[in-house]
Amino acid sequence: MKRLFTWLISLFAFCSILLVPIQADNTEYVIDEWGVLSEQEVSQLNALAASYSQAHDTGLYIRVYDDYYLHGYSTIEAYAESIYLNEMLDDDCLLLLITMHDRSFDLFASYDGKCHEAFGSYAREKMADILVDDYLTNGNFYGAFVKYLDLADEYLIMAENGTPMNHENDPSVKANRRGLASAVTFTVPEIIALFACLGMRSRMKTTGISTEARDYIADGGIHLTRSQDIFLHRTQTRTHIPRNTGGGGGGHGHSSSGSFGSHTSGHF
Amino acid sequence: MPSAITNYQCPACGGPLHFDAELQKLKCDYCGSVYTNEEISAYYKEKNEEAIDVNTAEAQADAAQVLQWTEEEARHMRAYSCPSCGAQLICDENTAATRCPYCDNPTIVPAQFDGALKPDYIIPFQLKKEQAVQKLREFYGGKPLLPSAFTRDNHIEEIKGIYVPFWLYDGTARAQMSYRGTRTHSHHAGDDLITVTEHYQLNREGSVRFNYVPADASSKMPDEFMDAIEPFKYDQMVPFEMSYLPGYLADKYDVSKEEDEQRADTRMKNTTIKAIRATVSGYSIVPEREQVHIRPDKVHYAFFPIWMLTTKWNDKIYMFAMNGQTGKMVGDLPIDNGKFIRYLLLITLGIMAVLFLLFFVILGY
């Protein structure tokens, strides 16, 4: 009897485990209060963010709001930090905050955890350049957010491999540097060698007709009797140098340190 | 019978005299006696005057008779009888100093320095024959493209100490120049770059005085050698005396001062243009008018010392000239093209290896 009772309890526990549904990740990684995304896009982005967040055990968040000023904050950075605290984001997280009223953005990386290392100022600024230049200025918000998540995943992998995204580890910088080094290595030696050999060759011929008589100018021999500089007229040209404005692309961010994390913010 | 030439022989033993560059005096090759130029000039004054009086046409006719040359050939040659050994010396019409090929006595033709032909100045030899040979060897040094066989196998065919005739021109170049000049400066005003250009008319007039601009007066001497061997130091230039010539060769001029004047004028003109142009500063200039007029002054006739050396290599004659006063050596050396290519490759690969090591190994690009 006792044995039967024990067996029934075990069976019940086993079935309970099978019947209890697996808790779904209901974290809202993407919130769009302004309406730049459709419901389907929000859903897709949420799933992508959840996938990357779980893979790296961090939080990757996107927030699109109206205006930080209306919420009582003088800067977007302050607003981002309040979201980090009040919306209970993961301690170790990256947040892309956009306020549509003045088209501002902020990339916030918390001090806790691997995000601080993976998203240093170089990585954040590089990410900001790509998002603003290629997507946000064109109004492609969905594309921008997908790119944000993909880049976050890429930079987290780099950090986990011990080579966080920075100037030394940036593959594009490395490729440029390698290309430049190759060009210098394979062209400069020829030029130097040619000049050196032509110099050696020129020393083999020492004869030539003299065309000047500088050595034979008498002492005090140069005598200027007239020296006149007459001003004639003035001309002026004006060349317009177009500036990179925020709306026209190139809205690069500037980095700063906050109370709970680092920021890279700007306009697009 | 007086001879048309004078042998400069030692008053003590009758041996040949030569002008010693180190002592700056005349020295006997046999007994070593040393004499100053003044002593020898005074000693041979009468003989020189007698030699001048000997009819040049007679010397010319002798050449034609002795050698049975045509009139044209004989017109450019002279035959002299050596007063020491009586041998016939056949010389170019311009030869002024030589050596008797039989008794080796230094021989001067005083008629070549008579009257208007007498040089005003001479720079005596300061460097000896041995120094000329040494300088040539030093000249070969530090020339990586020189064929190795050249330094090893070449031998000096001939070394001649020659007093080369030069015309020295004094003159004043008067210049009138005008240029268009501009000055540019820029500044930013908002998003615009403002470039302001000021335009000027620049006028310059002046003169440049030149002294002793040289041009060699011998058609036998390559001009590019004689120009390259400059400069000569005029502080060692002294009034001409025939007693500086024994032991060396000399030809009187065969290019007149009128024929050579253009060379000197061109040099003076180019220098004047550059000198006046240098007084314009702070502008970008475009010349509008550059007029230079040379007002000639005196023309002096001088003898300058040159050591001429010829070497033979690969059946080719190479000529070198050394300034007998300063030691400056000029000449065109053969180039080993194979060495040129090898050095080119070696230097290229060497630098390439260093850069490769630096960029891809040390810096890890």
Greatest interface (CB-CB under 8 A), with counts per chain: A-B, 57 and 73 residues
Number of strands of chain B: 16
Number of helices of chain B: 9
* Unreliable spans of chain B: none
Briefly note the structural class of the backbone of chain A.
alpha/beta
Spell the H/E element sequence of chain A: HEHEHEEHHHHEEE
Instruction: Give the structural class of chain B.
Output: alpha+beta
**Main sheet makeup of chain A:** 6 strands, mixed
Please summarize the sheet with the most strands of chain B.
Answer: 11 strands, mixed
Distance linking N and C termini of chain A: 75 Å
Describe the structure.
The complex is a heterodimer of chains A (268) and B (365). Chain A is of the alpha/beta class and 268 residues long. Chain A has a domain at 27-170 and 256-267: Roll (Diaminopimelate Epimerase, Chain A, domain 1). Chain A has helices at 2-19, 39-56, 76-86, 115-118, 121-134, 141-160, 171-202, and strands spanning 30-32, 59-65, 93-99, 104-110, 217-240, 254-257, 261-267. A 6-stranded mixed sheet of chain A has the order 1-2-3-4-7-6, with helices on both faces. The longest helix of chain A has 32 residues, at 171-202. Chain A is elongated and about 135 Å long. The relative contact order of chain A is 0.13. Residues 245-251 of chain A have low confidence and may be disordered. Chain B is α+β, with helices and mostly antiparallel strands and 365 residues long. In chain B, a hairpin with a 5-residue loop joins strand 15 and strand 16 (329-331). Chain B has 3 domains: 6-118, no CATH class; 129-332, no CATH class; 335-365. The relative contact order of chain B is 0.17. Chain B has helices at 37-43, 45-53, 56-67, 71-75, 129-140, 148-153, 223-228, 257-277, 337-362; strands at residues 6-7, 17-20, 25-28, 34-35, 77-81, 88-92, 95-99, 106-108, 121-122, 155-189, 192-216, 238-239, 249-251, 284-313, 316-323, 329-331. The mean pLDDT of chain B is 86. Chain B is extended and about 95 Å long. Chain B contains 9 helices and 16 strands. The interface between A and B is large, with 57 and 73 residues.
